[in-house]
Structure formats: structure tokens, C-alpha cells
Design goal:
Blueprint lengths: L2 H8 L2 E5 L2 H8 L6 E5 L5 E2 L13 H6 L1 E2 L5 E2 L2 E2 L4 H12 L3 E4 L5 H14 L5 E3 L7 H9 L6 H28 L10 H17 L4 E10 L11 E9 L2 E2 L22 H10 L5 E13 L7 H12 L3 H13 L15 H15 L35 H4 L3 H16 L5 E13 L5 E13 L32 E13 L8 H10 L8 H10 L3 E4 L2 E4 L1 H13 L6 H15 L5 H10 L9 H6 L8 H6 L6 H4 L1 E5 L2 E6 L2 E6 L8 E4 L11 H9 L5 E5 L6 E7 L2 E7 L16 E3 L11 H8 L3 E5 L5 E7 L2 E6 L2 E4 L5 H4 L2 H9 L14 E5 L6 E7 L2 E5 L4 E3 L11 H14 L42 H7 L20
Parallel strand pairs: 1-2, 1-7, 7-8
Antiparallel strand pairs: 3-6, 4-5, 9-10, 9-15, 10-11, 10-14, 12-13, 12-15, 13-14, 16-17, 18-19, 19-20, 20-21, 22-23, 23-24, 24-25, 26-27, 27-28, 28-29, 30-31, 31-32, 32-33
Helix pairs in contact: 5-7, 7-18, 7-19, 8-16, 8-17, 10-11, 10-15, 11-14, 11-16
């Protein structure tokens, strides 16, 4: 029976989903008796700070939002920006006969459904409606086969939420005190940051090794064709039976791992090449092996992120945003999944398309199954695939831009997963000859031919290494046999140098986290977004580069909270959380042991959780209480060499030689976008040699005060030194005259006359006909004229001293330009944005260069440059900015007439909820009251910092 006919007899049904886009698509598949509305994500959560906690809670509960003394009960509040939506949902529910909770079928979606039920308090029947794809058949089947809420999944999600709150809100303040305010720590984000930092440490410690070898081009002496080339290229493999060293034979210290290999330097390589000039070569062996390659499994969340990064240049977050749109609009199945399994319907659809597009010869006799899932897979979702029982080809979808590209990738991978293996042959040819000096030289060449491409006709996986050879590449060698003579047409001497380990990209970091079983695959995109936004990591091209700030943070965590950023510890915690989800362990005793270090006879002391001994849980509270052993200066200081230290200060990184106030002390700021492995002793010396400190320019002939030029936090400036005894505070305080240097000036060229002119600003240009004074001033956004409250921009800084009264009056005679000034020409054109379908350009703004499509602006990040930014990077920045854009706030206008009903001054005390959770509506507790009741411990936990630590799950 269809939903429409059911509804005719069953009354009105309210269906609640997460997003408006999802609601719009589902509404089209249900009858008129269904009302589909979005919750717009979570409607309530733990409070973001003490000010959001109801007044009845005090002390640690108010600070944490969790009552750690009473079984870790969470304090939930309705988000301020969701109150209007909750009100709307309650109104719709009051007119409905049934409630269907149709949020995603994962822990997050189950938690949203539970919160909706708790807040809306429905008096009508409630059903949980689940589906993996948004098609008419799937939605109607979900309506016809509802289930109950899965409380075990809800509890598992709540345990993770509480754990991440405790971790973030307890460890983040340590970073504020010892490193810098506004920082955050998180159960997974801190470990991810440590991975990136450790890779950079490896690069810093790396010592390159040089090695040489020979490459020979050998001819068979016969005419060749495409299937049987006339020559082959082979590399020197061994000399006198001793293998020639390659890059893999050297360690990170630049030394050979074994003395069994022969290390050729340039001189020896050239001598060998000369000795082989007249050598007769022959084929010593031909080894042929069958080649077979099976299709790749259909996509799960992490493999989709990795492949979209390799093939499309998408970041993890961008990939998930595009995939979310494809899912909500009914093009693909649910995109947060650990599974590689395909349903019988999907297998049939894929096999049918293989036959239709490639022919029956590409279809295996039996369907392929991919049952393997990652450890502790969260749900039994399908793999990510095109939706429906018949797959639409990319051309049939009508999609464009990024959505088309990602759909095509998913479609190809899914179809290829049901195709035959690729088969062929791999061949290794060994070529030998004796040099004139008696040495025996052996060269080796490898080839590969594919006789049947199989699934490769549809899809070939990319590689993280840009130099890696893809699976479908053929290397054909001549058809030769053992003993065949060959002629060396050319022998080249090649020099090589070992390279440091490659930095992580988003794709390779996702892969590393998953292989180490750290965190949840569905959260990796937000984790990477967090460490980028926090400034712990920045991008250089696609590489993730750690900032100097992240070195200080990781240093502190490793030394004083070692177990919390230990890879095995984090993976074991993940196992524990999954045991709780399966009902094999209880949440409260586990949380108690993690936080207080009690409740288990085998639990070690709190120090064990910090530095590596004893049980893997125990005593977070004690760890964050005793901070006396943490030396803030020490954990933020790193030796560069030759007595130069790199320090991470409040306003950024700097290098320093000697101690402050000591003779010969030097200090210089370090560019924040400098990769740590590029800070060599030589570069540090260059920075220290640059002009810095105070430049004495001379005395002001009028006041006698010394005038100096300085380099400040906001750029170079000039100022005067006031005499000793000049009051600096109080009503008689005197402030020194100060002025920023013009863009055309620099510290080492500015003169006393320049400084005096700068400090004379603002300059009185004259008065208009009404006697109003006109002044020329230099402001934050550039030079301008001011007359009363009327300001007009000037074209250049030089006009501040040259503009005349007549010229100023002429400017004021023109109508004032409303809005922004005339747009500057773009610095670079990037192409058409795949989402907005508008042209994207790079422009120069008041805060630096930014990309824009005319609707959305995104400032270039640290590591991006106008010269090097690619179109894909520009589109990614815009996509991230769109995703971050907050919902528009509703501003209430002042009522012209008395309100129908005056709001209560205080929220009435809510009745106890039937559920076990502590729930409460969010009240408008004033910050002043909160601070009065509790000082430091009751402070808002830096809503932007500690709360970001909770994006781990």
C-alpha cells in the first residue's frame, strides 16, 4: 500500500530529517498527508560555555556541562539558533497524528532522533524511519517498515560526546596557560596533529645521500613495431655480482643500511661507463610471470576521500560536502559508511551496466562480493554507490561541476567492482657484459603487457605518489631470448639523491589515521578542517605542513600528557568505546576510570595515563590539576643550531640568540608560513642579520625628544621617546606620537624628516565655505579626507602632504560614492566555479588577497599565494567558506503595539524528564552572574577553542 493511500485513512504524519535539501527530495516521494520538515542538524547539545548553563548548576558542572560527580550526567541545552525551528516543529507536531524520525542511520543520526523525541515530547506514536538512499522505492519501504530508536547507539554517541567534552575542556585550558590562548586539544585532532609534526621532525632530521648508477639503451638490431620494440632501456643492477645501491638502501641519516651493496659515486660511475663503451652485451635471462589485477572494492568514506583528493584535487571536507548534496538529492547512497558491501539490487544494477556498456566478455560468471569492513565498523550500511535499482550514467544525471565529477568517480568505481580481472604478463630481462677493466656489469629491465584490461576499461585507482606508475600502464619490451646479442646504443651516468619522507596530504593522512585505527572514518574530514582552522597545520600545494605553533603544542602534550597523544592508547580507547556500543562494557565506570583514575583494580596511577606506564586509562583530572612541572618557555623552545633558538611566542614564532638584556642578544621574527624543515641555521642567520629593533633617527628639533623607528606587530612605525617621569597612566597621562610607515618606506631607509612628517598627521588642509575644517589623515584602510563626519578616500599616501584645499573641495563637490569603492582589477582569473557556475577571480582586499565568485569571498590561507593558487584550490576555499557561513539570525523589530502575551521573566522549572538523561532548556543566564558565582573555574571555556576540540566525534 502506498504512503498516499495509507495516509488517507491514517491522518497526518510529520517526518523530520536533518537538512532542508533532504526534506525537499523526500517530500516529493510521499503523499499529501505527509509533512516533511528539517531539524537543521542537532537541535540541542552540551553548552558552549558557562553562560549557557542554567543557573541551578554551579562549580565543575557549570564549567564542563557534565556532572562528573553524578554518573557523568550531561547537561543539554537547546541551541540558541535552533529555538525558532524547535518552536516550528512543535507546532507541526501538534497538528500531526504520527511522528516519523528520519535522520541518518548512524550514531549521529540516532542521537539527533533521540534529542528530537526528548525535546518535542510527542503525545502521538513515534516511529524511527531509516534508509540508505533517497529514492522513491527506498523512502516508501522505510515508511512501511519503521523500527524503534536504538538506545544502545544513542548511549554510545553520548559516551563519545562526554569523553570529548572532558578531554577538550580539561586539556585545552592547559594550552591556554602554557602556550597561547584560543588553542584547542582533542582526542583525535591532537593525535592527527602529532602525526603531521612527527613527519616534519623526520624531514628535519633527514640527511640526503648521493648515489650514482648507469642507464643503458640496448638495441636488438632489428626493425621493431608497437608490439615488439627494437630497443629497451635497462638500469645497472649489479657489478661483479654485488647489487648497486639504490635509494631504498640508505637510511634517514644518509648512510647505507648494509655493506653488502655497492655504493657508486660519480667518479666510479663515470669510470665504469667508460670501461663499458666497447663491451659486447647479451641477454642473460628472461623471466616471465602471469599478471593479474582484481577490481578495487566499492568506495567507503575514507577511500572516497582519498581518491577524490588524488583524482579531483578535492579536500576531505569538500568531498563530503559534495557527497552530502548528491545523497540528499537522491543520486548516491549514504556517504558515511565503513562498509564495502553492495546489496543484491546494486550488484544486479552494476552487472547489467557492465554488459550494456562493455559487453558480456567483461562480466564475471558470479557476482563479486566485498564483505571486508574496517575494524569495529560502525553500521551495516552499503558501500557508497549510485542510488536506485538502475544506475544512471553520469551523462543521464544532468549534474554539473563538482557534483558531476564526484558522481562519475563513484559510478565508475561501482561498475568496475563487478567486472573481470585484468590479466597479462610481467617480464624481467637481465643483460650482461664484461668491461675493459675486467668488471662484470649486469643491467635489468622490467616490462608489463596487459592482454585483457577487464575492469581497467572502466576505472583505475590513483596513487598518492605523483611519480608512481598506475595499474593500467604498459611497458613493452622486445621479444628476446637468453643468449641474444644486444648493442649498447647509449650509456648514461645518472646521479640521484635520497629524498626526505613526503609530507602528508589530506588523502594520505586519512589513510594513516584509518590504518592506525585512530578515531572514526566519518569524522576525519572535520578533524582535518579543525587542525587547519586552528593554525596547527597549513597547506603548501596539497601537502599538510605543521606550523611552529603545533610543534609547541605537541611538545607539551608529549612531555606531560604522553598517553593522551599515544597512537596505541587512542586506538585502544576506540576499541573500548565500541565495546560499550556493543553492550560489552558500561559507560559510567569507564568514564570514571578515565577521568578520576578509579574503579578498576588494575588501573594504574594518574601519571600512568600521562607518560606511558600502567593501565591505558586513569586520572585525567589529576593530570590537568598539577601544572607546576610544565615550563612554558621550555616547551615552546627548539634548538636550531649555533646557539640559535626557535621560540613560539604570544605573537608568533621568532629566532633568538642569547638571552634578553644580555650583550650580543639578537632576535628576529620568523615568517609564519615558513615550513619548519626550511628553518636552517643559515636562514636563521639571515633573519638575525636583517635590521631589527629600534632605529634611532635623531631628535625632534622642536621637542628635543628622540625619534625611533620600530617593527611592531602590525608593521613598521615611528614614535617618540618621552622623558623619564612622564605620566603614562591616569588623567594626566601623555601618549607618545606614533605613525605607521607608508607602504613605500622601510625601516632601514626612513629618515628623521620622514618620521616628523608622518607624526604631523593629521594635516589641516583648510576650511570650506561654511568654516568646517578639512583634514588629511592616514587610517587603517588607507589615506582619506575628513570633514566633520564626511570622509572621502584619497588615491595615494603622498596626497596626504600634497593635496591642496581646492583639490579637496573638488573631491567633496562630487557625489559621495555609496557602498564600496570602484573594484580593483583582479590579480588572477581561475575559471568557473562548479557550484555557483560564476567566474572565480583572485582580488586584493584590505586584509590581503582573496578568491571570490561575486557571491562568496574566501581569504587565501597561509601557504597559498596568488602566483601558485590553482583553480581547484580556489574552488575548495569557496566551498569551505560556504559551508562555514552561519545561518542568518532573525532580528526582532521593536513592537509597535503591546504584545499579546508578556514573556515570563524567568523560565519555569521543568519537570523531571522520564528519560535517564539530565535535560533542560537553555536559559539566558548572564555572564556576570556566572562570574560572580565562580571565578576562573566558571569561565566560558573559550567557545571557539575548547568546543572545536569536540569535533573529534
Amino acid at each position: 500500500m502506498s504512503p498516499t493511500s495509507e495516509t488517507a485513512h491514517g491522518g497526518r504524519r510529520l517526518v523530520i530529517v536533518e537538512s532542508p535539501a533532504k526534506a525537499k527530495t523526500i517530500k516529493g516521494y510521499l503523499g499529501p498527508g505527509y509533512v516533511v520538515e528539517a531539524s537543521v542538524g542537532h537541535i540541542r547539545d552540551l553548552p558552549n560555555g558557562a553562560a549557557e548553563v542554567p543557573e541551578k548548576y554551579t562549580g565543575e558542572v557549570r564549567r564542563l556541562g557534565v556532572d562528573v560527580e553524578h554518573d557523568f550526567q550531561p547537561i543539554y541545552v537547546v541551541n540558541a539558533d535552533k529555538k525558532a525551528q524547535v518552536r516550528k516543529l512543535k507546532e507541526l507536531l501538534a497538528e500531526s497524528d504520527e511522528l516519523y524520525l528520519a535522520t541518518d542511520e548512524d550514531r549521529e543520526g540516532e542521537a539527533i532522533a533521540w534529542h528530537l523525541q526528548e525535546v518535542l515530547k510527542p503525545k502521538v506514536p513515534v516511529k524511527r524511519m531509516v534508509f540508505h538512499e533517497i529514492t522513491k522505492e527506498a523512502i516508501r519501504a522505510a515508511v512501511a517498515n519503521p523500527r524503534e530508536l536504538n538506545t544502545r547507539m544513542v548511549d554510545a554517541q553520548e559516551t563519545r560526546r562526554i569523553l570529548d567534552r572532558l578531554y577538550g575542556y580539561e586539556v585545552s585550558p592547559v594550552l591556554w596557560k602554557k602556550v597561547m590562548r584560543g588553542l584547542s586539544a582533542g582526542r583525535v585532532q591532537s593525535v592527527a596533529t602529532r602525526l603531521v609534526v612527527e613527519r616534519e621532525r623526520e624531514r628535519i632530521a633527514f640527511r640526503s645521500a648521493e648515489y650514482w648508477d648507469l642507464t643503458g639503451t640496448f638495441s636488438t638490431g632489428r626493425a621493431g613495431d608497437a608490439s615488439d620494440p627494437s630497443s629497451l632501456v635497462a638500469r645497472l643492477n649489479a657489478v661483479d655480482g654485488r647489487r648497486v645501491a639504490q635509494g631504498r638502501d640508505f637510511g634517514p641519516d644518509g648512510r647505507l643500511k648494509s655493506d653488502q651493496v655497492l655504493h657508486l659515486d660519480e667518479a666510479n660511475a663515470r669510470a665504469l661507463a667508460a670501461a663499458l663503451e666497447s663491451t659486447s652485451f647479451s641477454v642473460r635471462s628472461v623471466e616471465s610471470k602471469p599478471y593479474r589485477r582484481s577490481p578495487y572494492a566499492p568506495f567507503r568514506t575514507t577511500t572516497l576521500q582519498q581518491e577524490a583528493s588524488r583524482k579531483l584535487g578535492f579536500g576531505a571536507k569538500s568531498t563530503m560536502q559534495v557527497a552530502q548534496k548528491l545523497y540528499e538529492n537522491g543520486f548516491i547512497t549514504y556517504m558515511r559508511t565503513d562498509s564495502t558491501t553492495l546489496s543484491d539490487t546494486a550488484v544486479s544494477a552494476a552487472r547489467a551496466q557492465v554488459t550494456q556498456l562493455y559487453g558480456a566478455s567483461y562480466l564475471p560468471d558470479k557476482p563479486r562480493t566485498y564483505a571486508g569492513k574496517v575494524k569495529n565498523a560502525q553500521e551495516a550500511h552499503e558501500a557508497i554507490r549510485p542510488s536506485g535499482d538502475r544506475f544512471r550514467t553520469p551523462a543521464e544525471t544532468g549534474l554539473t561541476g563538482d557534483q558531476f565529477k564526484l558522481y562519475e568517480l563513484i559510478w565508475k568505481r561501482t561498475v568496475a567492482s563487478q567486472m573481470k580481472d585484468a590479466v597479462g604478463n610481467s617480464v624481467t630481462v637481465k643483460i650482461g657484459g664484461r668491461a675493459s677493466d675486467g668488471r662484470d656489469a649486469e643491467f635489468s629491465a622490467s616490462g608489463k603487457t596487459i592482454t585483457f584490461h577487464g575492469f581497467m576499461k572502466a576505472y583505475v585507482e590513483g596513487a598518492d605518489d605523483p611519480n608512481a606508475e598506475l595499474d593500467d600502464r604498459e611497458r613493452r619490451l622486445p621479444q628476446v631470448a637468453e643468449g641474444d646479442p644486444l648493442t649498447a646504443e647509449e650509456l648514461s651516468v645518472d646521479g640521484h639523491a635520497t629524498k626526505p619522507p613526503a609530507r602528508y596530504t589530506e588523502a594520505s593522512l586519512v589513510k594513516e589515521l584509518e590504518e592506525r585505527e585512530i578515531g572514526r572514518p566519518s569524522t576525519y574530514a572535520s578533524i582535518i578542517g579543525t587542525i587547519l582552522d586552528r593554525g596547527y597545520v597549513f597547506k603548501k600545494g596539497t601537502a599538510l605542513v605543521p606550523s611552529f605553533l603545533s610543534f609547541a603544542v605537541v611538545n607539551l602534550l608529549e612531555k606531560h600528557f604522553g598517553r593522551l597523544v599515544d597512537y596505541d592508547f587512542t586506538a585502544r580507547m576506540e576499541d573500548d568505546l565500541d565495546r560499550i556500543a556493543r553492550g560489552e562494557a558500561q559507560a559510567v565506570p569507564w568514564l570514571r576510570r578515565f577521568y578520576f583514575g578509579e574503579g578498576d583494580d588494575n588501573a594504574g596511577p594518574a601519571s600512568g595515563a600521562g607518560n606511558g606506564d600502567g593501565d591505558h586509562l586513569g586520572g585525567l583530572k589529576e593530570l590537568v590539576t598539577d601544572l607546576g612541572a610544565i615550563d612554558a618557555r621550555e616547551i615552546s623552545s627548539f634548538l636550531v643550531g649555533d646557539g640559535i633558538m626557535l621560540r613560539v611566542g604570544r605573537y608568533g614564532p621568532y629566532v633568538e640568540r642569547g638571552e634578553k638584556d644580555d650583550e650580543g642578544h639578537q632576535r628576529a621574527d620568523v615568517p609564519e608560513d615558513l615550513a619548519p624543515d626550511e628553518l636552517t641555521v643559515e636562514y636563521a642567520e639571515e633573519l638575525l642579520a636583517k635590521p631589527s629593533g629600534d632605529f634611532e633617527l635623531g631628535a625632534d628639533p622642536v621637542t628635543g625628544h628622540q625619534i625611533v623607528a620600530k617593527d611592531g606587530r602590525y608593521g613598521p612605525y615611528v614614535t617618540e621617546i618621552l622623558p623619564d617621569g612622564t605620566p603614562k597612566t591616569g588623567k594626566n597621562a601623555v601618549k607618545p606620537r606614533t605613525a605607521s610607515l607608508f607602504k613605500s618606506m622601510s625601516l632601514d631607509t626612513v629618515t628623521l624628516d620622514d618620521a616628523l612628517k608622518l607624526m604631523s598627521l593629521p594635516r589641516v588642509v583648510g576650511k570650506d565655505a561654511e568654516g568646517i575644517e578639512i583634514t588629511a589623515q592616514n587610517g587603517r584602510y588607507g589615506p582619506y579626507l575628513k570633514k566633520g563626519t564626511d570622509s572621502r578616500s584619497l588615491e595615494s599616501e603622498d596626497q596626504l602632504f600634497s593635496i591642496t584645499l581646492d583639490e579637496a573641495l573638488a573631491i567633496y563637490a562630487q557625489p559621495k560614492q555609496r557602498g564600496r569603492a570602484a573594484a580593483k582589477p583582479p590579480l588572477k582569473e581561475l575559471g568557473t566555479d562548479p557550484v555557483s557556475e560564476r567566474p572565480v577571480v583572485v582580488k586584493d582586499g584590505r586584509f590581503g588577497p582573496y578568491v571570490t565568485d561575486g557571491e562568496t569571498n574566501a581569504t587565501l590561507r597561509t601557504g597559498d599565494s596568488v602566483e601558485e593558487i590553482t583553480p581547484e584550490r580556489g574552488y575548495e576555499l569557496l566551498a569551505e567558506k560556504r559551508a562555514k557561513s552561519p545561518a542568518k539570525k532573525t532580528v526582532k523589530k521593536a513592537a509597535k503595539a503591546p504584545a499579546k502575551k508578556a514573556p515570563a521573566k524567568k523560565a519555569t522549572t521543568a519537570k523531571k524528564a522520564a528519560a535517564k538523561k539530565t535535560t533542560t532548556a537553555k536559559t539566558a543566564a548572564t555572564a556576570a552572574t556566572a562570574v560572580a558565582k565562580k571565578t576562573a573555574s566558571a569561565k566560558t571555556a573559550s567557545a571557539g577553542a575548547a568546543s572545536s576540540a569536540e569535533t573529534d566525534e
